[in-house]
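Service request form, structural biology core

Requester: graduate student, group of Dr. S.
Request type: structure prediction, single chain
Budget code: on file
Notes: please return the result as structure tokens.

Sequence provided:
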Amino acid sequence: MKKLDLRLFRMINDTKGQFIAILSVMIIGIISYTTFNIAAKNLQDTLDHYYIENNFQNINVQLLKIPSNVVQGIKSKYDYDMVSGRIVFDVPFISDNKDEKVTARIISQSSNDNVVNKLHINEGRFITNKNKDALIISKFAEARNIKIGDKIKVQISGKQYSLNVAGLVDSPEYIYIMENEQSLLPMPDKFGIIYISDELARQSFGFGNSYNEVLIKINKNQTEEKEEERLKDTLDDYGVKRVIIRENQLSNSMISEELEQLAKMSNSVPMMFLIVAVIIIMMMVSRMVKKDKTIIGIMKALGYTNREVLMHYSKYALSIGVLSGILGTILGMILSKYMTLMYMMYYTMPALKVTIYYEYVAYGIVLSSLLCLFAAFLGAREVLKINPAESMKPDSPKTGKKIFLENIKIIWNNISFNSRLTIKNIFRNKKRLIFIVVGIAFTYSLMLVTNFMNIYFADLFYDHYGKFQKMDYSINFSKPMNKLQVKELNHLIEIDYMEPKIEFPFELIHEKNKKVVNVIGVESDTKFYTFTNVDNEIIDYLDDGIYLSKNLAQSLNVKVGDKVKIHSFIPDRKDTYLRVRGIIKQSLGINAYINIKVMSDKLLDKELVTGVYINSKDNVNKKLNNVANIAVVQSQQDLIDIFEQFMGMTIFSIGIMVFFSGLLGFSIVYNVSVISIGERERELATMRVLGYTKNEISNFIVKENIIMTILGIILGIPLGIIMITGMAESFATDIYSMEPEIDPMVYVYATIYTILFVIIGQWSMYRKIRKLQLLEALKMRE
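Core staff response, request fulfilled:
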């Protein structure tokens, strides 16, 4: 082994604490790079394959009723690749628990295998007995412990049907199972999909030879947007209620947003750690070169070239790069498996496979190695300037300069000598000061973001279902009913307070922007909603205009006072224009709100409602479980319970981010402190000769780091706010929008965590000081 390589191992051993600390930061960067990229690749490839193999729809047209012969003619008329008709209705699922309200979406299934949204059989068989067999979506069956051969009961048009479970299936349409946009979180035990034969669906729903949905798979030369407009016009006579292109299909939208977030994280999170690691390595190598000035001169005098000496110090950084690349990619591959499996808890794709993409392993090793070599070159380039003869001379002392605080006599004269020494040491090395302050600011800002997310997501849900919406139950009817008939509910359950509602999908259009959303009609002075505009002003009364949630207003690019075109999917209904009277802060969901009287007069038939909101202490689910014309009873408490389950995983993820952020802060403080001690050995040794103890010397450095920590936290507050604001804008979706209003406790938690990790770094630094032979540093070089 070459002599320089032996010396390299000694260098690593002598600086093993710093080596391990910076190695940890690099490993985290490579782990996050590998994990996020492989998980995203697994998810995207599986999704694309699943969609192709199972003929996932491009367009879903929901109608009142369309004859099957018209459906068959659409394919040839417009040269579509595939067209399927089906019947879809939400009905009550009869549970053994009489107090439980469960909804099943009944979907008719053709015996033809060449259909849009082809089912994947996980267990069992397809339908053979067309009057008795049913297929159950796997997640629903798993949540309710339904097995092959079990009998299930559903209520269709007031009549109970007993069905035999022939198979457990998955569908590309329901990878992420949510009842609607308002559900926000999946409830697999409360909502499921049941497939029955075309014949049984037509008979039980009274549809004869008709359907109420058309699924279309377009050819490669067509675009979804153009076909959407053409279908609206062509099928208008059949009562088009809604046309959903693939981009807006609920399940696809949710998983696409998750892939987008993964892509953002795979770029931002790794680079954050890697950039910090590069800067620390550059400082470490630079310090080594300065410390080894005499040794480098001797090596050159013995015949070693600049390239050989430069490579010697570069190998130190390269060893960090190679080791972190290997360890980081190995751990990243393992974590990517668990991350992919975690997605399987929420996304149902039977073909989801955990594949190791070795190109990302290679990318990770190459990336870490190149970054470390780059850092080493920047840090060791002074090697090229060292002359063997000149290297024997001791460095000239730096010219002392006043710091800005010395010019403020009132302050400076009232500061103790030790404090003056501490302050001058801080500002003497401005590069070190800037790096530590910026590093701690970065650590604090990350702590601020992670703690903000932890508190915000909890408050978000409780605020939405406690302050924004204040009803105990939301009840949807299976078909619109006269307002007077609603009063009959008083005979079935004890109601403390009740308000009628209208909830209906419309297409909102402003200039070139359009969006299909649920428009909700409520009482003008509703007690069940607290509407607050973007200026935090309470809206007490809904007048004759329309009120949009903030994310909807942004999607349509409208402001208060603009007119919005409301396109109805109901046959023979003309488009209506309403003026935007307010933009509402709504964290979850995307909706428009209208005075219920205005909505019934201008958009629907007068005196008709689609449901009610109620407050009741009665056993509502049990008493309304088998009531005809009631499709869904949604309890606020059920939603909160589901959310609390979801929050368990979120808190775990945030905890990992807090740990990673703290490790970053520890690594910065520890490495820079050790570098600082190395640069100041002679100074610290002089202080020992003057009578200072090791504890007193340690206290000097601790005080320096405390001041720099305070400066870092002060700088980290605006930096964290900027990061939170940027995150709120980039992560906002149709499902939720983030308002970057930071709870004061977020600052407190972020400060505590930052200080805690800085203290750990200080403790490690203190041990380093205790081991230093400071008196040796006073020996003059010959």
